Amino acid sequence: MKKIIYSLLFISLLTACKEKNKVPVEPATPAPDKNPVYQRVELRSDTLNLVKLTDTLVIYESVCRGCQYEHSASFAIADSLQLVALYNIETADNTPSDMDGGSLQKYILLVPKKTGTTKFKLYSFLEQPPTAEDSTRFTEYSINIQN
Questions:
Q1: How far apart are CA 27 and CA 110, in angstroms?
Q2: DSSP string, 89-127
Q3: If we measure between CA atoms, which residue out of 114, 124, 52, 132 comes closest to residue 89?
Q4: Which of 131, 147, 143, 133 is nearest to 49 (CA)?
Q5: Helix/strand/coil for 81
Q6: Is 25 or 142 the better-scoring residue by pLDDT?
Q7: How many CB atoms sit inside 10 A of residue 120's CB?
């Protein structure tokens, strides 16, 4: 009797685990013929980043929402080998509009121009015009661009 009950429970568990609606899953990275802006690779400052020439590189930054420098914050890169170029800076505000404070997310988009290995600096400018203090506010990234 116990064997019958256990086997019925086991069979019901197996049938309950089946997925009823089979929706095709989108690939994580779009096909190469699509817009390269959507093939984003997040860069990290603590390691050598391996990227392809067709990738769009993204660095995530945030700026205080409601601070005096909210609208004057800007970013620039310095790459001595000229392997990477600044493409665009996107801003996202995920904080409700009726809430004080919070932060704005900045997506700094970069595109590789040619293959090679380089180190570049990302500068954060919080005032316009930039001051001497802003030149000390940077993050260094190392990347290896391959075909």
A1: 22
A2: EEEE--S-TTS-S-EEEEEEEEEE-SSEEEEEEEEEE-S
A3: 124
A4: 143
A5: coil
A6: 142
A7: 21
β pairing state of 56-64 and 40-42: parallel
Total Cβ atoms within 10 A of residue 59: 19
The candidate with the shortest Cα–Cα distance to 143, out of 72, 52, 64, is 52
- Alpha-carbon distance of 71 to 24, in angstroms, equals 41
Question: Tokens 């909210």 map to which residue?
Answer: 70
Token code pair at residue 77: 């890169």
Question: In the structure encoding, which two tokens stand for residue 64, read together?
Answer: 């205080």
DSSP calls for 23-75: PPPPPSS--TTS-GGGSEEE--TTSEEEEETT-EEEEEEEEETTSTTTTT-EE
Give me 76's structure tokens.
């620039």
Enter the tokens of residue 45.
């400052």
pLDDT in tens, 14-50: 665 555 444 444 444 444 444 544 578 999 999 999 9
